């Protein structure tokens, strides 16, 4: 009761939708579970772990990493773009949520096309569920925001701090993705220890800033679903970061021991 009372200060009342309520629980639980499995060596097969557990698979259909990542991010981008047509201007808060989600996935698609350099592949049966997850979470977040129409605003407005946090997150995420892309210059395909930015403190600053960006969206949205998804994403990216640091430690003998996974000086 105390938790519900405190949360009511920061979030809209629970939506009149069993679907959105169920998706809030499902999104958090599934993402947290995947994050836990990442720490146990059971990885989603993309990026450094594109070939993980390949021996257990029977000739999966594989896509080039660029095509696979486009498949992962494009449906969520289209959901965000379509929301401006499905839910015409419903107030400044809703407009900013729509814009932030659309911009986030537009950035990801643009990075796939023009920034990232790939050397591996993505199994189709891994790309499809990840793509579906991004699409459903984006669509649900937008629908949950639509359901806040006519509801009383939360007593504490986090909208403007959320905009600042989102901009810091998306900017920091892009900058560290750019630094990672420079490691693959001149046609190199091998991995190297990244440098610059916050890479001297954590091995996954791009994940740290992605988390900040999603908390920014949650602050703008102030819906239960947005916070549930963001908290689940936090657990997932924490797990992925821990696994990534372990991968660097196993691959590079001179990997700096004081470089943490995702939170400087702590984790």
From TrEMBL:
Keywords, sorted A to Z: Membrane, Transmembrane, Transmembrane helix
GO biological process: lipid metabolic process
PANTHER family: 3-OXO-5-ALPHA-STEROID 4-DEHYDROGENASE, 3-OXO-5-ALPHA-STEROID 4-DEHYDROGENASE FAMILY PROTEIN
Protein name: Very-long-chain enoyl-CoA reductase-like
Membrane topology label: Multi-pass membrane protein
PROSITE patterns linked to this entry: S5A_REDUCTASE
Main location: membrane
Transmembrane recorded as keyword: yes
A Gene Ontology cellular-component term: membrane
3-oxo-5-alpha-steroid 4-dehydrogenase C-terminal domain span: 162-267
Domain of life: Eukaryota
Cell compartment(s), UniProt: Membrane
Family of this protein: Belongs to the steroid 5-alpha reductase family.
A GO molecular-function descriptor: oxidoreductase activity, acting on the CH-CH group of donors
Membrane-spanning ranges: 18-37, 67-89, 158-175, 196-217, 223-243
